[in-house]
Amino acid sequence: MDIVNRNSYSNIVFYAIVVNVDTNQDPSGLNRVQIYIPSTQYELNNIYETYMNSANKSSNSDSSKFPWAKSLVKDLKVGNIVYGTNISNAGDQYIILGLDAYNTKNQQADSSIYSVNGTDLLSLAMPIIVHNEVGIDVNAWPDNISDSNYKRVLGNDNGAWSIGLIQWNASRAYDLLLKISNNDTNWKSAWSNQNYDLFKDLSTNSSSARSKYGKGFTIAEGSDLCNCIQNMLSSDSAKSTQRDYASEDTQSSITTVQEKGVSNPMITIFLVDIMNQYGPNLPSTISNAASISSNGGDIKSQFDEFVNYCQNNLGSYNTYINRRNTTKTYIEQLYEQGKFSSGGLAGNLGSASAAGFIFPVAGLNRDSINNKNYPSYKGHTGVDVNRGVQEGVSQIVAVANGVVAQSVALKNANGTYRSYGEYVTIDHQNGLYTAYCHMYPNSRKVSTGQTVQQGQILGLLGTTGNSSGPHLHFEVRSGRNSSSSAVNPLNYLP
């Protein structure tokens, strides 16, 4: 375009809002974004808000209604407020001239700053891992990921194909497509050619066929087969499956290292990112992480010691030094933001109830409570979490922020456990107290008077005291330490 020719532009300058920056959706492609012009596009007023709240804008049925505009501005983001005009007074040809520099919506957070709102280990780790795998903005997980990141296909990634959001490699790439085929009833429509063995194996739901697609299986990028795979990866159902599968992978790694004794949350995230590349078979590294986590130092000094250990002992550290340094930087930012202020956060905490409580056993929900009515019998002042639990493994967590009112081991004179056994109560500073009873011997991780945050690990589930089997007896009380003030906990749990 001849930008010195004043007749190239109209005399009208308007405000516009950027609504889509995924140029893969634009057949003309280069340097174009979709915009909404409130002053002239009255017919879009009613759909603008719902469209902007859509997680997958490119597949939204209203996407085609917003016009494309050429842009003289690099790196625009959805929501930017821009100045634009028409080209040669043409009512349907738009160009973006610049940003409104003083509008707060344009003062985007630096993508090098990790400002996620999550509190549990899974939500803190996931953005880092997906950023490292496919290069998304670290704050884009889970709702602002572009189509191109979901449908990434590398035909030969160290001797095998890799696909999707965290570049599942070799046989695991087949596992992902099999999950998608089970979740997306329309997946076959993505295949313009259904004569491929891969399509036939997915059609027969053949999990045993995964060995055919391991090391040595590669595809030509840009080929018809590659295009079919990309189409299959890009449906809304496929995107949801990818997010779920990535979370399952990461949670599995978190659980693995925690069960091996790694309690430092900073070390856990750093180690989980390494495991995402190399799998769980890192016995020496995990063992060292567990040892450092229990050396009595503060969590930051422990983290620094573990990173130093990896630098000197992990053969691949320098091969992926940029990834390791990026992960280290983001974890340190989370530390500075106070995400690990009390240490020992569990993974997979779930969402909070209207009362602000999360579930008291990490990874479980109220389906794990065997007594759905309260009280389940006369004199029983709490609820018992005993379904799907593992003695000495399942993590008991603080349901909300508070101060430990009591942390004791209730024992008889002869040393045997009595009553609630290993036992913690928390004062939530709002008139409510919670009690966590029958913990595993010597597993309590908090002391009386200590400030704790929601999701902090209090101890491990056990069967100490007056207990007939592994479970957590959980109470909510309106008074300090007396079960006589117990109220129905089901009214507070998610």
- Fraction of residues in β-strands: 15-25%
Using only CA atoms, what is the Rg?
27 Å
* Cα distance spanning the termini: 58 Å
| Mean pLDDT, all residues | 86
Q: Please summarize the sheet with the most strands.
A: 7 strands, antiparallel
Order of helices and strands: EEHEEEHHEEEHHHHHHHHEEEEEEEEE
User: CATH top level of the domain at 366-491?
Assistant: Mainly Beta
Shape: globular
* Low-pLDDT runs: none
Strand-pairing-aware structural class: alpha+beta
The CATH homologous superfamily of the domain at 366-491 is termed: Glucose Permease (Domain IIA)
DSSP summary: helix tally: 11
Helical percent range? Answer: 25-40%
The CATH architecture of the domain at 366-491 can be named as: Distorted Sandwich
Count of DSSP strands:
17
Which fold name fills CATH's third level, the topology of the domain at 366-491? Glucose Permease (Domain IIA)
Labels describing this entry:
494 residues, alpha+beta, OB fold (Dihydrolipoamide Acetyltransferase, E2P), seven-stranded antiparallel beta sheet, five-stranded mixed β-barrel
Describe the structure.
This protein has 494 residues and is an alpha+beta fold. Among the domains are: 6-106, Beta Barrel (OB fold (Dihydrolipoamide Acetyltransferase, E2P)); 366-491, Glucose Permease (Domain IIA) (Distorted Sandwich), CATH 2.70.70. Helix content is 28%, strand content 18%. It is built from eleven helices and 17 strands. It has helices spanning 45-52, 121-134, 147-150, 171-183, 197-203, 224-233, 236-259, 265-278, 283-293, 299-313, 321-336; strands at 9-20, 32-36, 68-71, 81-87, 94-99, 153-154, 162-163, 168-169, 383-385, 395-397, 402-411, 417-427, 433-439, 451-452, 457-460, 472-477, 486-487. Strands 9, 11, 12, 13, 14, 16 and 17 form a seven-stranded antiparallel sheet that branches. A five-stranded mixed β-barrel has the order 1-2-3-5-4. Strand 11 (402-411) and strand 12 form a beta hairpin. Helix 2 (121-134) crosses helix 7, helix 2 (121-134) crosses helix 8 (265-278) and helix 4 (171-183) packs across helix 7 (236-259). The protein is globular, with a radius of gyration of 27 Å. The mean pLDDT is 86.
